[in-house]
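step: validate -> pass
step: tokenize input -> pass
step: predict -> running
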Amino acid sequence: MIRFATVLGFALAAPVTLLAQDIFEIQVYEYATVPKGKWNLETHFNFSASGVRTGEGPVAPTQRQTRLTFELTRGFSDLFELAGYLAFARQPGDGPEFAAWRIRPRVRAPERWHLPVLVSLSAEVAFPRDKFEAEKATLEIRPILERRFGRVQIDLNPVVGRSLKGPGATEGWDFEPGGRFAVSVDPRLDLSLEYYGNYGPLHDFLPRAEQVHLFFGGGDVQFNDNLVANFGVGIGATSAGEQTVLKARLGWLF
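step: predict -> pass
step: emit ->
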């Protein structure tokens, strides 16, 4: 399996028409954190080949939208890391625009605890611009559950998120799960199937046709111990949100 820590890219939240499903940070978190004293720089590139065609209020549509995000993470201890993010986007016919900034601490349970699954937990606060998210500030709580079976690795991210400031601040928590099934076919290559969803409010899930369900096929290429690339093509399973998304990520540990 990929040996060095894969950590979240820094990204903006997707428009309200996407039920807050974050298509800029298309990544299922794995258990490991950045090692103590190390930095990790990740660059995410995503493109909606077929996205949301109609904006909602000041929020721009995502059709043919390109997104570039940067995340810098520092490992402060063997069990704790802190990440900061900058996000940019480009609408068709326009130049690049600043879209959001974020901050995210993450902790993990020591492997010596011998839990049934490997566990870590992140909390992310985002401050998007109006053009890319109706909310002024959002909070995401992400448990990370991981289990390995030989060449197979399974990661689950049962994410919950909510608005802290903005029109949705009184609406409570949304359920936005993600998952990854990966097979190591070579010491430097993992092939994977990833899932990203948004079911709407925890207290009352939306009808299926209004939920977001994205499936990505792709993989990770480990060039060396410190450099890894991820790639994937995503297809939407409902008419809500994105229909076809291309994603790539480059991570550098130093």
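step: describe -> DSSP finds no helices and 13 strands in the chain.
step: cleanup -> pass
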